[in-house]
TrEMBL record, chains A, B:
Protein biosynthesis as UniProt keyword: no
PROSITE patterns (UniProt xref): HISOL_DEHYDROGENASE
Residues of the active site: 327-328
Annotated protein name in UniProt: Histidinol dehydrogenase
Top-rank taxon: Bacteria
CC cofactor note: Binds 1 zinc ion per subunit.
Length: 430, 430
């Protein structure tokens, strides 16, 4: 049974804080093991990849090669059903169209003081994309991680995917082909992150690494941060549904379960001012759970981390949501647009009764790589800005330099940086 | 003596790679010590801050209080010269004006499929700014770190600054007052980062931490990343000057020394097609170095990490610069704008003969917090985007949901996520 909270209860604040603070992940201490793996790959390159893949994935890369060949990728594409290829292409097209609007413009202007100022955007040269193996090897994630990089203009997109015992999801390779991934390697874990960050004979180093992974992958990303850029450290996924009496309990239940089926540490929460709706949704979840293939994951997720919160009104629901900063926020009300302005912290908003989160997971166009575990308080979902960077531009004329010089020199002297001041004043003596 | 490289030499590529790979910082292994400090602050809060500040800063916070009082801040402002207050205000105004143009617009549109898409930007609620104590306690850095946060709309800006033996730079407090910092605490080191990330009775937790610090501060930021957002891990600073025969050797030398005076691990590089200019600049550096108060820092920096590279033409200079991705890039040529388009990787560009980097350090308007140690390959200087985050918006109507549903369900089924597919299809059966 999920927890049921009522805002009118005397101990509500305490219970809400306990819900906010609940840890859904036991962090494993793998830092030392990961450090050893990274050093091994730095020292021995491809030979370390062969040995570590033998050990962890039971696969002999000397037999298979480290990189997938174009023939292997094409074969995977061929064996994917045309319906699925059509769906992947449709999704990729919509994701690309949405992300294209995120490209910023370069700027150059001269201000009142006669100073030229501006900014110039360039793509990162090379990006690495980590794709988990096994259960969580999702073709949709390949599209979501690759599309913004392609839109940004990244030239080299290197994908790594572990293939335990040599098994790979062919649809993942097909998605990579559709998305324009330039190279694919059958390595995973911390060793794959190390190879992308530092390079080996086969895998040239990249400048930024994105994509989710297990505790070893997360620890490796944290350790190579600085040598390369990284995206966020992803945690277990969550949805928060805000619904009023206009909502359909069966639909809300389906959305809560779609989140819960990801894994046992996923979290699904309903907040509503309507206690009757809360009851009806709880009943519907139990009913739909019975016939769900992933009952073994969704059941524990809902029982352990699910929550149903009855509040006094919709504004109170939004206020609690802002404190939670959910990854996904569904506004299951008749006029969702009226609430959007009040949302301060969330990864993505899904508007109204006909926008289940799953539409955004696949084909809506928005990105499904979103900040988890309350990090929407400071982080954004994956977007084009993750793959471009900004160069600032500054230019003075003799006269604008003269105008700014006295205050620049005063500040330099206050900081005891005489050579700074001198580099300004030396230009005034002509 | 700095290294002198000539592109026409047979071993040039090898020498350039060795310059690129030179480590200017010995990384101290402080991870374990930092982990203990963070845990201590998490467990004991203010009491840990008192004990650690006693130990590291020889200051009794029980006597002074952890927070600076408004009276103390006002007194520091009063004792700052009016010339300096004027310079700080001038700088802050210019920095603010430049950063205001970085604010993105919210967006909401409906595409051909009838799907509503958009994005909405919100400021981070609370930000922590780390200001080093001692030598590197720079008022200009207070302005540079705070201005983009203020422009973004951040409500709470908490500054921490260690005050060894109780000594603080009053100009730093004056700058904080001018920039609108909302609270200032006399703590530093890993303990200050821990307090900002997890909160104590006195210091409420923030959502993001920015600002440079020593190895302990850097390690602490790495460890709390995920609990809060962090900015880049800053390394030693560097300047690359590209100059042709139109450049003034004395001015270039002054700029190289302005960089070198920061500390012994700073790096100053000149690339020029003009061997005579290279000779003249080297001579000028030696001459100016003699009379420089910070000769003890600038001398070793120039001798150990300085470099003068003679190339065949300006395009070759830009190509090498793109491989280095320098923090600061000066284009000391007559027509710098013609080169800007060719620059792919740099933190900031300074245009022409009359724009010494120091103008950008203080008063140009651009930010002086820039990506060091070649991280401009994937990172930007500090800007408004570091203090805002993006919520994506997606909305379907019954008919646009019907149009997208088949491909969404096909992808969900390919990923074996039946509840995802069901959350879409259940809405079609009415």
């Amino acid at each position: 049974m999920p927890v049921r909270l009522d805002q009118s209860a005397a101990d509500f604040e305490q219970q809400f804080l306990s819900l906010l603070g609940a840890k859904r992940e036991t962090s494993i201490e793998v830092g030392d093991a990961v450090e050893k793996i990274i050093n091994d790959v730095r020292m021995r390159g491809d030979r370390a990849l062969v040995d570590l893949t033998n050990k962890f994935d039971h696969l002999d890369l000397n037999q298979t090669g480290i990189a997938f060949t174009q023939d292997e990728i094409d074969a995977a594409y061929q064996e994917t059903s045309s319906q699925l290829i059509g769906a992947l292409n449709h999704a990729y097209k919509r994701i690309t169209a949405y992300h294209e609007r995120q490209l910023p413009k370069d700027e150059l202007y001269t201000d009142d003081a006669g100073v030229t100022l501006g900014s110039k955007w360039n793509a990162v040269d090379a990006v690495g994309i980590y794709v988990p193996g096994g259960l969580a090897s999702y073709p949709s994630s390949v599209l979501m991680n690759t599309a913004p990089a392609r839109v940004a203009g990244v030239e080299r997109i290197a994908m790594v995917v572990p293939t335990p015992n040599g098994v790979v999801n062919p649809t993942v390779l097909a998605a990579a082909k559709i998305a324009g991934v330039t190279e694919i390697y059958r390595v995973g874990g911390a060793q794959a992150i190390a190879a992308l960050a530092f390079g080996t004979d086969t895998i040239k180093p990249v400048n930024k690494i994105v994509g989710p992974g297990n505790a070893y992958v997360a620890a490796a990303k944290r350790q190579v941060y600085g040598t390369v850029g990284i995206d966020m450290i992803a945690g277990p996924s969550e949805v928060l549904v805000i619904a009023d009496d206009s909502a359909n309990p069966a639909w809300i239940a389906a959305d809560l379960l779609a989140q819960a089926e990801h894994d046992k540490s996923a979290q699904s929460i309903l907040i509503t001012p309507d206690a009757a709706l809360a009851d009806a949704v709880e009943k519907e979840v139990e009913r739909q759970l019975e016939i769900l293939p992933k009952k073994h994951l969704a059941g524990p997720s809902w029982d352990d981390y699910g929550a149903v919160i009855v509040v006094k009104d919709i504004d109170a629901a939004i206020a609690l949501s802002n404190r939670m900063a959910p990854e996904h926020l569904e506004l299951a009300v008749d006029d969702p647009q009226a609430l959007v302005g009040k949302v301060r912290h969330a990864g993505a908003i899904f508007l109204g009764h006909h926008t289940p989160e799953a539409i955004g997971d696949y084909i809506g166009g928005t990105n499904h790589v979103l900040p988890t575990a309350r990090s929407a308080r400071y982080a954004s979902g994956l977007n084009v800005h993750d793959f471009i960077k900004r160069i600032s531009i500054l230019g003075c004329t003799p006269s604008s330099l003269s105008a700014l010089a006295p205050d620049a020199v005063a500040l330099a002297e206050a900081e005891d940086l005489q050579a700074h001041g001198r580099s300004v004043s030396i230009r005034l003596n002509r």
